[in-house]
Amino acid sequence: MTANDPPAEPDDAALPSPALGLLSHGPDEVVDHRLYGLRDGLDGMRDLMDRLLGPEGCPWDRAQTLETLRPYLVEE
Fold it and tell me: How many whole angstroms separate alpha carbon 38 and alpha carbon 63?
């Protein structure tokens, strides 16, 4: 994978079950993040990042680097 390659698409089967729960709701449906063990505010964001980047987390997220994300972050 080079910096010019788009990030690989996540494999839903590889996502931990709490992540699948977060993805299974409609866009207008309110989801209480605390049901998935996430705290409020910045602490909750850290919890989510720790879960996604951890050994049992999302392989797609773990594979990303600053170089693979740079083209998309600069665009935003």
Answer: 23
Taking the C-alpha atoms of residue 55 and residue 50, their distance in angstroms, rounded to an integer, is 9
Cβ atoms 12, 67 nearer than 8 A: no
What gap in Å lies between CA 35 and CA 26, rounded to an integer?
A: 16
Q: Which residues of the chain have pLDDT under 70?
A: 1-27, 30, 75-76
pTM beyond 0.90: no
* Whole-number Å distance between alpha carbons of 71 and 67: 8
- Decide if 3 contacts 71 (C-beta within 8 A): yes
Tens of pLDDT, residue by residue over 4-15, are 666 666 555 555
Cβ density class 24-35: b for 16+ within 10 Å, e for less: eeeeeeeeeeee
